[in-house]
Amino acid sequence: xxEPWLSADDxxxxxxxxxxxxxxxxxxxxxxxxxxxxxxxxxxxxxxDWVRRGGASASTRDEDAE
Length: 66
Prior knowledge:
Layout: H1 8-15, H2 19-29, E1 34-36, E2 39-41, H3 44-52, H4 61-65
Antiparallel strand pairs: 1-2
């Protein structure tokens, strides 16, 4: 059975973060996401791999400037 596509709300709940943080991480930390029309869709396995590789803890441009 194929892995279901999840919404930004679903991924936020999965990670225990806000939906705003999801959108920030897409833009600033290269969180794996796929644009389908106007919606962002996610695969939990891709997100979990990204987190394990340290994607969520990678510094942003603002942090680099400090």
